[in-house]
Design goal:
The protein has 148 residues and is mainly β. The chain contains 2 helices and 11 strands.
């Protein structure tokens, strides 16, 4: 048993997991793999993580749909940057039918209202910058009132 544990501990690459508590199909996980980007990263869509308003975030959470992320992309190697400063990546989905992956992040408190530039990084690959607006609180309240 100790030999097998040592072999697994020193291993890297793709591993298959088989949950024992519930009948589910095995999942693949990447262990100690360097981020590899085989194509170009593109931010296809950016929106508020709670209101779904496009290109604007008032909730403090941002959702992005990214194409070009490798299968090994996960919370540990995908970074969301606003004006070059890293945010808190919360979620990285598997690819959808269009090969886009949803990435959710929480904005840090230093991100202030106004126009910003968002970039996603995976390993040495960077997406193109995409504009994002954080409205002033009174602007957001006025927009909410006009929507009702």
């Amino acid at each position: 048993m100790k030999q097998e544990a040592a072999r697994i501990q020193d291993s890297y690459g793709w591993f298959s997991t088989a949950p024992t508590a519930q009948p589910r199909p095995p999942a693949r996980i990447a262990v100690d793999m360097k981020p590899v980007c085989v194509g170009r990263l593109n931010i296809e869509t950016i929106c508020d993580g709670l209101t779904w308003a496009r290109n604007e975030v008032s909730s403090g959470f941002v959702s992005l749909w990214i194409t070009g992320l490798h299968d090994s992309a996960d919370l540990g190697n995908v970074r969301v940057l606003i004006d070059g400063r890293s945010q808190v990546t919360l979620y990285v989905s598997g690819p959808d039918e269009n090969a886009a992956r949803q990435v959710n992040a929480r904005l840090r408190s230093f991100v202030r209202p106004g126009p910003h530039s968002v970039v996603v990084e995976f390993g040495s690959a960077r997406s193109q910058p995409v504009p994002l607006l954080l409205p002033l609180p009174e602007q957001h309240a006025q927009q909410e009132e006009s929507n009702h």
